[in-house]
Amino acid sequence: MTRGRWLCTAALILTGCGHRDRIVVGSKNFTESDLLGEIVAQQIERRTELPVERRFHLGGTFVCHQAITSGQIDLYVEYTGTAYTAVLKQAPVADRDSVYRTVARDYAQRFGLVWGKPFGFNNAFAITVRRRDAARHGLRRISDLARLAPGWKAGFGYEFLERADGFRGLASVYGLRFAAPPTAMDLGLTYRALAEGKVDVIAGNSTDGQIQALDLVVLEDDRHYFPPYEAAPVIRQATITRHSGVAVALAQLAGKISDAEMRRLNALADVEHRDIATIARDWLRATVP
Amino acid sequence: MSLWAFYARNSQEVLGLVGQHLYLVAISTGAAIVIGVPLGVLLTRRPRWRGPVLGVANVFQTVPSLALFGFLIPLPFIGGIGATTAIVALVLYALLPIIRNTYEGVAGVDPAVREAARGMGMTDRQLLTQVELPLGFGVILAGVRVATVVSVGTATIAAAIGAGGLGVYIFRGVAVVDDTLILAGALPAALMALGADALLGVAERRFAWRAP
Amino acid sequence: MIPALEVRGLGYRLPGKGKWESGDGRFLVRDVTFTVGAGETLVLLGRSGSGKTTTLKLINRLLEPTSGEVQVAGERAADLPVTRLRRRIGYVIQEVGLFPHFTVERNVGLVPQLDGWPPARIDARVRELLTLVGLDPDTFARRYPHELSGGQRQRVGVARALAADPPLLLLDEPFGALDPITRVELQREFAALKGRLGKGMVFVTHDVREGLLLGTRIGLMLEGRLAFLGTQDEFRRSEHPEVRKFMEAA
User: Fold this and answer.
1) What is the complex's ipTM, to 2 decimals?
2) How far does Cα B35 stand from its chain's mean position?
3) What is the DSSP secondary-structure string of B180-207?
4) What is the pLDDT of residues A124-146, one digit of tens each?
5) Could you tell me which of C90, C87, C95, C66 has the C-alpha nearest to residue C78?
6) Dihedral, A103, A105, A110, A116 alpha carbons, nearest 10
7) Which residues of A touch B168 (CB under 8 A)?
């Protein structure tokens, strides 16, 4: 072979080798996803000999989905409801198990991706308002919003605005007609905007640490518009096959995080600004010794 | 969906976002001119201030736009989520080219012209309004042109902090990996920048004075 | 008759080593005294750096004198607001300094416009002056400086200096940047012109022949002082070493 060909082949072999012996963990662009990604990454590191490369804060659901289907990452934590409505584009249903079964089956068939067991909590979209507004107008459920919407301003992150299980469906199911189109901004800023009075209602996440810290209230999804959103690791079939230790390591995390526990961990990161790697390490040491 | 179909389907929203974008750029560039031109003139009268003033303006230029938005958000009055913060940031970005070009335009007047003007008994204000500003106008316009084109681009990032504008489409498109959406925002923004560049370039050439 | 210009003990000293500046404190102009009557032309001669241009700038306060006194047409220069002083003095410089964005007529009419003359009066005066300096008003009034030759520009410069009919004219090597032929032409015309104007003039040059052609009296500057002050004849006959040097170069 010519020298050029030799070099290319050598490079290919080396990178191929490298990739085989390395797990790439991704995460979406919000705190909880980073936290779960770090927990998963550290768990794999402590239970197997494999080095883990982290590619966190990648972007939204669709960026991560593209990354994993194209092999740029091996694993990330996804939510069943999100996979169901946004990726598989099914109309939302309320039953947890049926949603899980469907996504597990379809992801395996269509994308060669395997769903691990859920961590144990449900992180739904949380339609959130200020506590004093909830008290003043007697708001407990999302239906209660309909009469106030024409005089109120809404603010949402970009993904919620675009997704099928996002704003459009919500507005139609609950008859919400706001005076102006919702203000769009980076998801992380919506809490601040709500607290400062720049907007009156946002779609946060039910396990966010800032809800309590900023004196906010989550409205009940009385018409069951949102599907369940159970978080679980999604991993490439090829990776599971090549490294059986990974499946064992991940199984140890199943069912270990309750709603309250996730909220506590999120608050440590978002409200107390503690380092994510430290939070993950402390939690693993305490919960999965 | 093709881009044109998208525009046809959402024409009202598109026009709204274009209007918001123009608003951000126009207000911020206008404010930067009101602040920057007098400052630039002042620098020609007080040479010792040149280093510090240009230095500070330069610092703002080097801060990445998203970072600048982030720094401004917590501040009272001028901060917070929304258009105000974006406009403040855009003004800070536009200041350096405008101040510097005003200084160059005014200071760059032929020294013989300035000496003759003073020697004949023009007051400082007459010198400024009848000689220096008219002769330097082309260079000042060049600074405004640079500032405007940069503003159009930077204003797309303002959508991240809720300021609206064409960046809304771009961010939405990035969130769901939709090329049509991204293009729907990027294309008009690019056209706006090119248009501003061309228009102001024409004006600039009209006002450039050939040395005798 | 009040002299057009009286200068007594005029001096300009550079700032020394002080809190804000670091200079050497030397004198650029020292102890200069002379008088220029109406209709008289004093030629300030001297080599480069002798202080002749500095002296000129001390008269119209483009530089502020550090010592001595200047009187223009009987008024103390230091007492007048500086812009009012300068409008009573015509100023012609080597580079001319016409405003490139003004037409010839706007350039010439500058000081009358600053003084608030009615437009009709300015127009008439501009036409009169352009004719005086040898430029046909109908051809040249609407032209811009970049459309003129060097000689034509300096003619406009002289017209501009005369516009408000000042009692005193200061000229700093006005023909120095022109080609030799144009220079001689303008020197001759200027020599003829100034006789009719009846103004006091201080004419700075380093060209002896030009000085002898145009000056009623000659002042020779050397290292900031007036080494010689006298008529043309006195100049030619003087034994002063610096005068000798200049006469040899003529």
Assistant:
1) 0.91
2) 12
3) HHHHHHHHHHHHHHHHHHHHHHHHHHHH
4) 899 999 999 999 999 999 999 99
5) C66
6) 70
7) 158, 184
Residue C220 reports pLDDT greater than 70: yes
Q: Which of B10, B81, B174, B181 to mutate to test the interface with A (most CBs of A within 10 A)?
A: B81
Two tokens at A240?
């599971």
Kindly give the residue spans of alpha helices, DSSP state H, lying in C100-207. 104-108, 110-114, 119-132, 137-140, 150-162, 180-197
Chain A residues whose CB is inside 8 A of the B159 CB are: 184-185
Question: Does C222 reach chain B within 8 Å, measured CB to CB?
Answer: no
Tens of pLDDT, residue by residue over A15-61, are 544 456 899 999 998 899 999 999 999 999 999 989 999 999 888 89
Rounded to an integer, what is the distance from CA A123 to the centroid of its chain?
Answer: 8
> Strand A201-205 vs strand A125-130: parallel, antiparallel, or unpaired?
antiparallel
DSSP bridge partners of A125? A205
For chain A, where are the alpha helices, taking DSSP H only?
A: 3-20, 31-47, 61-69, 80-82, 96-106, 131-137, 158-162, 167-174, 187-196, 210-213, 237-242, 244-251, 259-270, 276-287
CA distance B169 to B184: 6
Does residue B141 contact residue B204 with C-beta atoms inside 8 Å?
Answer: yes
Question: How large a percentage of chain C has pLDDT more than 70?
Answer: 97
Pull the structure tokens for residue C107: 């350039």
Kindly determine whether residue A163 and residue B80, on different chains, have CB atoms separated by under 8 Å: no
Distances in Å between the alpha carbon of A59 and those of A55, A69, A273, B49, B141? 10, 15, 21, 45, 40
Contact with chain C for residue B116, Cβ under 8 A: yes
